[in-house]
Each structure stands twice: as C-alpha cells, then as structure tokens.
Specification:
Elements lengths: L4 H12 L3 E2 L1 E6 L5 E6 L3 E5 L2 E8 L5 H6 L2 E6 L5 H8 L12 E2 L5 E2 L5 E13 L2 E13 L6 E3 L2 E3 L1 H6 L6 E10 L2 E6 L5 E2 L2 E3 L5 H11 L9 E7 L4 E9 L9 E4 L11 H16 L3 E6 L3 E5 L11 E3 L3
Length: 319
C-alpha cells in the first residue's frame, strides 16, 4: 500500500516530533572514493555483539555502494556542524571538498571534530519499504566531549549551547516568500524536505536579513509586504514572513513550484506549510491578509478587498 500525499505529510510530521541527533554516514566506493549522506535514523542495536543501524533511501544514488560494500562509518555531528549536515544532505558535486577526513581503523571515512564516530563492518541489510536498514558491526569507535547536534520538527537545535545562553527573548526568524507567475520558491531543508528561504535575524536587522536571503537565492526581488507574524513558543522563536515578487531568472538554489497545496507535501515545517496553503488559497481569490498569532492559532487581518473581501477576521491555523 502506498500512502497518499496527505498521509505521507502527516506521517512525516508525526515522526518529526521525536527528537534525534544528526549523523553523516560515510563509506568508500569500489575505487576508494569517499561517499556520504546525512541521516537522523540512527540507533544502537546491541552491545554484545556491538551493533548499530542506520537507514538509506532506495532512491539514493549511493544505495548500491552502501548496501553492497564492506562497511560504513557513522559520524555523530557536533553542535557547530550544521553546515556539514546541510552539505551531505544536498546534491553537491563533492561533499568532501575542504573536509580533512581520515580513514577509520576499518577503512570508512571519519570526519573531524564530530561528537563521536563508529567504524563498522556491514553486518546485515534489511529491505524495508522505501528504505533499507544497514546494520553495522562496530569494529572501532571514539567519543569526545563535544555536544551533539539535535533535530526536531524539521529544524536543528543545539541543547547545550541553548542551555548556556543568557535569556534575551525569542529569536527572530525571517522567511522570504519569493513569488513569480503563480509560483513560489522552495529550497532544500537539509533532510530531504523543502522549506522557504529562512534565516535568523542578526545585528543588522530584519531588512538586511531579508535582503541577504534574496541575494543568496540569486534572484532580483522586491522585499514586499508583511504576510505573517507568529510566535513558536516551543522553539522560542518569532517568525516573520514577507511576500517578495521576483523577476525572471534561474534561482541559485531551489526551484519554483506552483502555488498549490499539492506542491507543499514535502515542506517539513508544519507552520510554514499551513502558511503556504493559505497563500495558495488567497492567490486564487485575489484577497490577501496578514496572520497574527502563534504556530497553532491566530487571526488573519484582511488587507485587500474584492469578491471575497467581506470575510471577517478568521481564527484558526492559517499562517
């Protein structure tokens, strides 16, 4: 049985409520070239014998190499290695460029500055739906004092760094809704899902952060009207989204998709996906509003009139 798109989306969200660490799984191909991919599907299996498991998608270009090779390594990333996670989750030509990796005792690539690593022989491959479970027999391992990088509900978190930070109020997060001819730009979220161009506001302020997001996408776009303001209490974040009309041109990352709920199935952040669903609906009607609230409920203030302009403030999950 193949799950319907809506069911897949709900299932992804349910899985995302389980907090995990972030790993990069590595191996060597038949020519001795390093391979790797980001995974949070890592678990210990047994102490005697020493076994662990990770999963790899059957659609991965590295599927054959990992399921038929002699072994692999699991590198548990530390809190400062979000960039490595993102690199190994995207279709980059050389994911190991600039990384001073070393072969482990059993031969698989070990990344520098990780929280821990496990060098494994391939013990068993279990086919399981659209993935395969790689069970590794641990031949060597090492753990450091570096805290591990976390992943929860489609985003990274750094528990040790956050715990030691001085409370200064919620982080301000800006999203750029880059629109063009009935489409919106979505980019890779680093874990096989999609998201909007999004960044934390730095010292230069919201406008500068939004301009930098647009520039990183390689597009000419006008920072447009405010579209959504909501607080994510659980993550201590205040989210602000702006609609930004984009000119013609190929984006440096991501791709434009139709403004339709069916295009947003793989958007991992539920609040962003709900906001995009509302945008698709409002674009069809030509009647836009601004959402104020939190990640679960709030109000939409209408800012344009028209055939549907008589609708009052609407309560609900309509970011």
């Amino acid at each position: 049985m193949t799950a319907a798109p809506d069911t897949r989306r709900a299932l992804r969200d349910a899985f995302g409520t389980f907090m995990t660490g972030v790993t990069v799984v590595t191996a060597l191909d038949d020519h001795g070239n390093p391979l790797g991919f980001t995974a949070n599907s890592f678990a210990s299996v047994s102490l005697d014998p020493a076994l662990l498991l990770v999963q790899i998608a059957r659609t991965s270009v590295n599927y054959a190499a990992f399921t038929s090779g002699r072994g692999f390594a699991v590198n548990i990333l530390s809190e400062g290695q979000k960039h490595i996670s993102n690199t190994f989750a995207r279709p980059v030509a050389d994911r190991f460029a600039g990384i001073d990796w070393q072969p482990g005792p059993h031969g698989a690539p070990i990344l520098p500055d990780v929280a821990a690593w496990f060098d494994c022989a391939l013990h068993q491959v279990v086919e399981a739906g659209d993935h395969a479970i790689l069970i590794g027999r641990i031949e060597a391992f090492h753990a450091t004092q570096a805290p591990g990088l976390g992943y929860y509900r489609g985003t990274y978190f750094t528990p040790v760094a956050t715990q030691g930070a001085v409370p200064t109020g919620p982080d301000i997060i800006v999203s750029a809704i880059l629109e063009r001819e009935g489409q919106v730009l979505l980019i890779d979220d680093g874990f096989g899902g999609l998201t909007l161009p999004t960044a934390r506001v730095g010292r230069d302020g919201t406008a500068a952060t939004l301009a930098a997001l647009i520039a990183q996408c390689g597009l000419t776009a006008t920072p447009g009207p405010l579209y959504s303001v909501y607080e994510d209490v659980a993550r201590a974040q205040q989210h602000i989204a702006f609609r930004c009309p984009a000119a013609a041109g190929r984006p440096a990352k991501g791709a434009f998709v139709d403004l339709s709920p069916t295009s947003f199935t793989d958007v991992t952040d539920q609040a962003l996906r709900t906001m995009l669903d509302r945008l698709a609906d409002e674009t069809r009607m030509g009647n836009y509003g601004i959402y104020f609230g939190n990640q679960n409920a709030g109000q939409v203030a209408r800012v344009a009139t028209g055939q549907a302009g008589k609708r009052p403030l609407v309560k609900g999950t309509t970011r």
